[in-house]
Design a protein that fits this description.
The structure is a homodimer of 307-residue chains. Chain A has 307 residues and is an alpha/beta fold. Chain A has one domain: Ribonuclease Z/Hydroxyacylglutathione hydrolase-like (Metallo-beta-lactamase, Chain A, 4-Layer Sandwich), CATH 3.60.15.10. In chain A, strand 12, helix 10 and strand 13 form a beta-alpha-beta unit. The model of chain A has no long low-confidence stretch (mean pLDDT 96). At the A-B interface, helix 2 of A face helix 2 of B.
Amino acid sequence: MKIKVLGAAAGGGSPQWNCRCPNCISLRNGAPGIEPRTQSSVAVSSDGDDWYLLNVSPDIRQQIQDCSELTPPGNEPRGTGIAGCVLTDAEIDHTTGLLLLRENANFRIYSTPLVRRWLNDYFPIEPIVSAFVPREWEELSLGEPTALVSGKGKASTLRVTAFDLDTHPPLFAKAHTGSAEGSVVGLIVEDTATGGKMVYAPGVEAITPALRQAVEGAQLFFMDGTLWSNEEMITLGLSQRTGLDMGHIAVSGNDGSLQWLAGLDIPERIYLHINNTNPILDTRSDEFRAVRETGVRVATDGDAFDI
Amino acid sequence: MKIKVLGAAAGGGSPQWNCRCPNCISLRNGAPGIEPRTQSSVAVSSDGDDWYLLNVSPDIRQQIQDCSELTPPGNEPRGTGIAGCVLTDAEIDHTTGLLLLRENANFRIYSTPLVRRWLNDYFPIEPIVSAFVPREWEELSLGEPTALVSGKGKASTLRVTAFDLDTHPPLFAKAHTGSAEGSVVGLIVEDTATGGKMVYAPGVEAITPALRQAVEGAQLFFMDGTLWSNEEMITLGLSQRTGLDMGHIAVSGNDGSLQWLAGLDIPERIYLHINNTNPILDTRSDEFRAVRETGVRVATDGDAFDI
């Protein structure tokens, strides 16, 4: 399975358009040790031709330009390397890119029933893009593998299994009622041809038994790396919300994710969905070094893996 | 009045993600004579501090990074040079950027009542962004000047007047009923302090008396430059739709816009909203030379003017 990081940043990217935190200032000044990152998305492929996006960020146009595998292949006047899109939640920074892929190419979109319903109720991507090209939307049942099939009906050897992670609705859907099952999921992607297994979890509120089970036997694990500390945004004077208020466990601390990741027997453990404020983005920081000392990576745009 | 071109391309930008037309191939190959362009938007300011966007493209994050005037000014932890946004229509490539400006900054949005209604009915940007930060939305009456006021309530010396151009609803709103007045407007922007006058018209179906009247006395005019010829997309095998089907008059021909522009007594006449297929994007083309010989410009991202 081939894996490409299209974007490694949390919502807003880094730099974020309206932010003057130390990382954003460094990025605008071209300081050494820190690279710009677009909003989080990963592409996976079994054959190197048909690519499935895990979330579709608002930066998808720039991400396609920077990833030759996704540009139009062959000799047809219009085309794409994108064979399908899988959503982990209904957040704007994970779904808006679908609007930008509206022209002249068919592919299937996969999400939980709840994510589809929230989008249709509050942010109706499905009818908007279907006014351009009809889209099939396949619902993922938690814990059940679903085969990924291209827009042209070509089966891949990839299958995706969603597992429940979190019950955070997007801010725009906060008036919702009913079950929150499937609000925020992680994705297990397996290649039945090779036995490759990766896990994608950009929104993790707690290290739950379901998450521990999902990563067993994985060769690669993308983990939510939003904030270094739970109060980071408040300390910097940028927000009144903690990481947990936003549905994101901190990297550091006894309850943080790094301590857990450090002990996991997974060859590639990688922080992704990293907020612009997180000091691990700066390779000169103590926090970056602390992460690297455990063998965990900090994702950058363009990182490529083959498992 | 200071004017900056944030993006000069039509919807999709150039290159467009899924397109293999000659221009898109040249751009991916880094050929000389043609530059990448993001999706159309222009920023205007009377004082150089508070900037008003005319349309907000999906590429706004990249456009802000490339335009230092729009990055956070002063010393506040979060801020922006964007004081307000004015919409000419409800198209995805002119409005989606509003979703990306949802965090932590208040500013007013201006549109016709019909554009606001279509967005609320089909693409509910207003409630989505208001879940993050409340937004004031001011409706523009056709032919009546509206003063532009910043999100902090600071008056500018700019006033904007919308005039009717076209009756094309966006594809996602094609089921609409009722009057089409205000579907697609042009904008006259005047600086009452200096007498500066510019006109912004990215969607022009025909050279109407209203358009002729609007540009009288203007020092600068951004004109719809979508296609060179009406059948361009069909000839290239990319679409079944003519330019007029999409609401855009061609540049060339006896009924085209270039012949009209050539005779206008306006110091700066500039094509903008240029489709990736249009040969005027390539400075080595005969079509580019034909435009330049009339004194008309072909906009590129980053172009700046002061009138």
